[in-house]
Amino acid sequence: MAAEKKINQPGDNVPRHIAIILDGNGRWARRRGLPRTAGHAAGSENFRKIATYCKNIGVEYLTVYAFSTENWKRPEDEVKTIMRLLRRYLNEAIDTMERDKIRMKIFGDVAGLPQELQELVQKTDEISKHYEGFQANICLNYGGRDEIVHAARRYAEDYAAGKAQGRLSEEQFGGYLYSAGIPDPDLLIRPGGEQRISNFLLWQCAYAEFYFSDVLWPDFGTDELDKAIEAFRRRDRRYGNVK
Fold first, then answer.
1. What gap in Å lies between CA 131 and CA 208, rounded to an integer?
2. pLDDT tens digits, one per residue of 59-107
3. Of 114, 48, 126, 52, which Cα lies nearest the Cα of 79?
4. What is the dihedral of CA 35, 38, 40, 43, to 10 degrees?
5. DSSP assignment, residue 33?
6. Adjacent-strand bridge partners of 139
7. Predicted structure pTM score
8. Residues classed as catalytic
9. DSSP strand E in 123-194: where?
10. Rounded to an integer, what distance in angstroms lies between the CA atom of residue 132 and that of residue 114?
């Protein structure tokens, strides 16, 4: 079998927007006799590597599913560890965003996060306004259905106040989503062996290409990402048309 092509140049026919479900942290830790929290730490470090790689090869947007609205049901110590890792990552990001000119956006119900995280999110938003180029979107306290309901409520409020007029269009509705102003994902990747999207970007992934891998997220390195992009290149994207 021929080796997968390594992506060497920025813009080397890569997807404009890649979305990833960060799955498999807990199983990765269990297979090594480690607590689940160790898997989340390893997964967080891998996100840093993949985000840097995406920026370097010319991907414009990377959106990752880090913590869902359903994840609050997990054991308390695991949730606390995830929140601690998020705080550490956002603090480090604030120190490097201006140096590397990287934008960062948080998708989700930020009001439901701990106060310290809310303040860090606000700081990343302010820094991001100063730059253009690569943008990392992190979905925290996020659910696809919740996002659609949230957008519908915002539209209804604007309509009642006379701020929204005319017949509602898909484009107009998209402006009320967390991802307003960002192109829809071209490629959705799920490591970890499961083959479902688990309430992730339900509206935005209507025409995304899906790629599933058995590799657990902490082990999903740049070579695995290259395989996903190569598979994407072979897809025939028709968007409902006949060629």
1. 27
2. 999 999 999 999 999 889 889 888 988 888 888 887 777 777 788 999 9
3. 114
4. -130
5. T
6. 65, 107
7. 0.89
8. 23, 71
9. 135-142, 187-190
10. 29
